[in-house]
Amino acid sequence: MRSTPHKALGAGALTVAAVAALVLPGTPAAARPATAPAACTPAQIVGNGGFESGTSPWSASSAGVITSRSGQTAHGGSSYAWLDGVGRTHTDTLSQSVTIPSGCDTATLTFWLHIDTAETTSSTAYDKLTAKIGSTTLATYSNLDKNTGYVRKSLDVSAYAGRTVSLSFTGTEDSSLQTSFVLDDIALDTSGGTAPPPGDTTRTPAAPSYTVNLSSDTSGTEWTGNESVTFTNASATALNEVYLRLWDNYHGTCDAMPIRVSDVTGGTAEAPTVDCTALKVDLPAPLAQGQSATIGFDLGITVPSGADRFGHDGAYSFIGNALPVLAVQDSAGWHLDPYTDNGESFYSLAADFKVTLDHPSGLLVPATGTSTDTPGSSGRTVTTATASKVRDFAWAAGPFTKISGTSSTGVAVNVYSVSGISSSSAQSMLSTAKSAVDAHASRFGAYPYGELDAVIDDNYWFGGMEYPGFVLDVVSTTALTHETGHQWWYGIVGDDEYNSPWLDEAFTDYATDLALGKTGAGCWDSVSWASADEKITNSMAYWDAHPDRYSTVVYGYGKCALHDLRRVLGDTAMAKLLKDYATAHWYGVSTTAEFKAAAQAATSTDLTSFWTQHRIDG
């Protein structure tokens, strides 16, 4: 939730540009199968992969892409797909929608590829074929990969289990010398694993409790120690495994992971998947409903360079999403969506954390929860942070300048500034945070996290980012008010941030408007939908493919839709709706369908056309 770009106003955040414009900004939940089989039935899910049954269900850029004409030959049968081969600037595409069952651990895309070319270079890729699933590029081939016959390609797409996505191939040629990309016998095979039975919407593992002990180097960029998590299976279906999300491995490679888990106890770790951001841990025995278990592991964290939500700006380290947390399983299976740098992928259930951070005394360490400092070994301090019913945990480390205050309702607020932030700017941010936390609390319910820490650095490229009781922000009244609003919309009222980003970003931006006295007047002055597929409720899979539209639609159009709903319901009814909805979902998870039902129950006006007009599906 980058606050402003990511989310300058909430990464839940908006971009800085979005803040300036006063417009804040994956597979939709609806795109996931409504139910999952009791067990994975091995299947091949690509239709007409050998092209022997005409063109359906494929979509191609021209009628000649799927062909049996002379000039190339099939791998099997008589038909094949022939992309490019015209010897001039040209693009061919081939795609079909596939649904990968959520109960399957393994999904493998295979195809046979023949490349012939008139290019003579041995070093320059002039013509290219790109294989994608959803918005993710799986592989790219070029004239440099020419061969005399077909070569079988195999690609792991297990991370897309439980999603309906587009499988696509795009061939591009430059201005001269042909390259032909010939495809045949395309298959996507699934196997392995189990999923909850149809209709079991229980989210599990439930009630996680994390205990973490870490020690840093002198700079605060290397942390080592251990972590354990105790959890309960809330589902009627036994748990055979759990997944840890190692989100920040996105910032490195699988060969050099910033987040390193080793010596796992209480289960057996498999090789990490989803670009090493998901670690499956097989439990020693099935965990029945109501039973609890504990897994533990050694943990190493290396903070990379860069003023990011996970990175260090010189002497100042920002450590968000670094602690491994449990993935969520529900009727759609395990939620193992990929990391997105454009917004958030983070989806976790409310948990308790006790985190002990041993660090040099010259470093201040603001963190999620309520912190106490005690003397450590020579020249070191031990910061112990405890937090109840939070979705994740973040901290920072550096020689910050700290100022503190208390809001009018008694919330302790701390502002930590990097060098270069003036004392007047810091005081302004302290005042903003105090007024924002009270304004949001008055509308949605009392702030429950004890204290609020704001870490201020004008070098953040994303504007701002929220965590429970802890936000990163530039010097911006709008951005900090937005990030503070995320304490309710994502923090207290949770959501699946990858598949339903509007539920935290649009709601937080609407709350920001209310806190700043804005009525949403002129919201739609420059509205322009990019396509029929563009909707407020689209997932990050869509927005990662259309990043320039994310802020405009999710933040901007999203909050405008809520202002419009307020005008339909009336100010009093809308205020009651949101407060009652927050109360009903306190420490729980919101869905689009549940919010729509709550809104409909608050008015005698049929809202069907409202949702359609505002492109709110689900």
Description:
- This is Peptidase.
- The radius of gyration is 25 Å and the shape is globular.
- A 7-stranded mixed β-sheet has the order 15-18-13-12-24-26-25, with no helix packed on it.
- The chain starts with 15 loop residues before the first helix and ends in a 5-residue tail after the last helix.
- The relative contact order is 0.14.
- The chain has 9 helices and 32 strands.
- About 20% of the residues lie in helices and about 35% in strands.
- A hairpin with a 2-residue loop joins strand 19 and strand 20.
- It has about 625 residues and is of the alpha+beta class.
- It folds into 4 domains: about 45-190, Galactose-binding domain-like (Jelly Rolls); about 200-400, tricorn interacting facor f3 domain (Immunoglobulin-like), CATH 2.60.40.1730; about 400-490, Neutral Protease, domain 2 (Orthogonal Bundle), CATH 1.10.390.10; about 500-615.
- Helix 3 (about 475-485) packs across helix 4.
In short:
A hairpin with a 5-residue loop joins β12 (206-216) and β13 (222-232).
CATH topology of the largest domain: Immunoglobulin-like
The number of distinct helices, counting runs of at least 4 residues, comes to 9
CATH architecture verdict of the largest domain: Sandwich
Low-confidence stretches: 3-38
End-to-end separation in angstroms reads 21 Å
Q: Strand-residue fraction?
A: 25-35%
CATH class of the largest domain: Mainly Beta
> How much helicity do the residues have?
10-25%
